[in-house]
Amino acid sequence: QVQLVESGGGLAQPGGSLRLSCAASGFTLNDYAVGWFRQAPGKEREGVSCVARRDGRTFYGDPVKGRFTISRDNAKKEVYLQMNSLKPEDTAVYYCAAAVYCGDSAPYDPEYWGQGTQVTVSS
Length: 123
Fold this sequence. Notes:
The structure is a single chain. By secondary structure, this protein is mostly beta strands. The chain is 0% helix and 48% strand. It contains no helices and eleven strands. It has strands at 3-7, 10-12, 18-25, 33-39, 46-51, 58-60, 68-73, 78-83, 92-99, 112-113, 117-121. The protein starts with a strand and ends with a strand. The model has no long low-confidence stretch (mean pLDDT 97).
């Protein structure tokens, strides 16, 4: 059974940090680009970040460049999103996803999705 399970969401203060994790099972993570989308209430889903399957290149959406860092550990079958200098506008449900390729800022046409984890940035 294919699963992507996110964890690490929660409440953070503006300027704070959170680290999201995504644990993969049921498929070979090495064969996929993996990354994150987010969706805030009343807004469209947007790409956040992606890490490629072969060369490990990373891609970021403009709103998070310089603040978020994506990484992967194929041995552990996990992907991480380190989020620093958080802003209230980062508040959203964050979804992990896997695809063959990265797009400009997220996995392109994902085959697999996680269930999402809530991130709230508020004082």
